[in-house]
Amino acid sequence: MTEAEKARSQMREGHWTGPTVYKVPGFVQCNLVILGKPNAYDFLLYCQRNPKACPLIEVTDPGDPVPHLSAPGADLRTDLPRYRVFENGKAAGDMTDIRALWNPDSVAFLFGSSLTFDHALARLGIPPSEDVWVFDTSLETVRAGRFHGPLVVTMRLMSRQQAITATQLTTRYIYTHGAPIHIGAPGEIGVDLGHPLVGRPLECIPESQIPLFWACGVTPQQAAVHSGIDHMITHAPGHGFVTDLQADRTCLP
Amino acid sequence: MTEAEKARSQMREGHWTGPTVYKVPGFVQCNLVILGKPNAYDFLLYCQRNPKACPLIEVTDPGDPVPHLSAPGADLRTDLPRYRVFENGKAAGDMTDIRALWNPDSVAFLFGSSLTFDHALARLGIPPSEDVWVFDTSLETVRAGRFHGPLVVTMRLMSRQQAITATQLTTRYIYTHGAPIHIGAPGEIGVDLGHPLVGRPLECIPESQIPLFWACGVTPQQAAVHSGIDHMITHAPGHGFVTDLQADRTCLP
Q1: Whole-complex ipTM
Q2: Same domain flag for B108 and B124
Q3: Nearest Cβ partner of B45 from A44, A171, A252?
Q4: How many CB pairs under 8 A join A and B?
Q5: ∠ at Cα B97 (B96, B100), nearest 5°?
Q6: Which residues, at least 6 apart from A167, have a Cβ–Cβ distance to it below 8 Å?
Q7: What global pTM score does this model have?
Q8: Are A42 and A133 in the same domain?
Q9: For residue A179, which residues of chain B lie inside 8 Å, CB to CB?
Q10: Residue B98 and residue B188 in one domain
Q11: pLDDT tens-digit series, residues B182-207
Q12: Which of A207, B43, B94, B108 is a good FRET partner for B51, with 20 to 30 A between their CA atoms?
C-alpha cells in the first residue's frame, strides 16, 4: 500500500478527518467541486478558459465516483477527510461522507492544488510559510455561461532570491497552478493586505521579503457560489483529495 | 495591421486558399473542429483527458463564430484558407467559406498546432524537415463518451543532439503538444514506417538520425470521425487558423 492509499483508507474509515496540508508528500493533492450534469459543460468550459486558476486533473463520468485516471482505487464520496456542502450559494455544513448526497448525474471535478508544489519548494530550501494567505483580486476571470467571478490568489512571502527560484520551479507545475500570476505590489492586482479571505491581516510586507501570488483553486468554487448553483459539494478548505499521481511527474507535461 | 490580421483578411477575401505551413511565423496556428452543441460536452471532456493530443486554445460559445480570446477580430466561418466538411464520418468535400453550414448550436474548438513550435526549432538551428510524417499508433487515447480512438503522432527526424534540444524546447510549448511522447524505436508505439497517414513511406531511419514523435492534432479529428458524428467541419490539412496569440508567449504557462 502506498502512502496515498493508506491516507485515503484512513479517511474512508473515518479515522482521518483533519487537514491534508503538508501531509502525504510526493502525491498530487486536489481540490474538489461536485456539480450536477446540467451545469457541467459550462463549468468545464470555465475551467478551460481559466487554466491557471482551474488546472483540471480529472473530471469523472456522471454518477461514477471513481477517479479512474488519478486514483483508480478511490471513491470520491468517502475518501476525502472532510467535505463542504453548499445550498443556493451558501455553505450549509461539513460532512465526512457524502454517499447520501451523491446521485446519478453527479460530476466530480478535481483540481491540482498548490499544496503539491509546496513540498518541492521545501526541497529547494524554501520552507512552508507559517502563514498562508488567500485574497480576492480585482482581476476578473473569463466567463463561461453562468460561471464568472474574480480571480482568487494565494500569497507567499519569501526573499527576493527565493522568489526567482520559486518562479522557475512552479513554472513547471502546470497542473497545480503553474508560475505566479503576480510578484510584489499587491495593490496592482487589487489585493488588500488588511482583508484576506484566509490568514491574518497585514499592515505591510516586511522590507526583506516580497509577496508572490499564485492563482488559487478557491476561484472555481467561488465562481460556482456566485453563479447561484443550487447544490454543490466541495472539499473543506485544507482538506484535499490525495491522488496516486506523483507530484514530480505531473510537472513534466 | 499585424501579419496575422493581414493573413486572415486575405483568407476572408478568398485571396489566400493555400496552406499555412511555415507561414505567418510568430503567431500561434490552430487546428479547428466544429461540432454541434449536443456533442460538445463529451468532446470537451475528451480534450481534457488527452491534453497532449488536444491542447485547447479556445472553445467558442454556441453560435458565436468569433474567437474572442485568441483573435477577437476574426470570424471562424471565413478566416481559414480551406475547410473540410465531414458527413457521417466521411470527408464530403472542401470549402473556403462555411457560412452556409454554420448554425446557432455550432461550437468551434481551436487546438494549438505544432506548426507553432517549428519556427522556434528553426531559430535553434533545427530547420523544418523536408518531409512531415503523420502516423497512427497502437496507443489508445482516453475515452470520453462516444469519443475514442488511437493516438496519432507527427514524426520529425533529427540528429541526436538536436533531439535533446527539441525536447527541451517543446516541453515549454504545452499549448502546441508539448514534449515528444516517444523517441526512437517506432515499433514500440506501433508506428509502421511503411504506412504513414501523411508523408512518403520509409524503409528505415538513417543511422545518423533519430525519430521524435509528438502527439498530433489529427487525433481529436479522427476520434470525431470514428465516433460516427453526423456533421463536422475541420480545417483542411495544413490549412490552419492564424490567431493573434504570440507563439513565444503561450510557452509561458
Answers
A1: 0.88
A2: no
A3: A44
A4: 44
A5: 140
A6: A179, A180, A183, A212
A7: 0.92
A8: no
A9: 252-253
A10: no
A11: 999 999 999 999 999 989 999 999 99
A12: B94
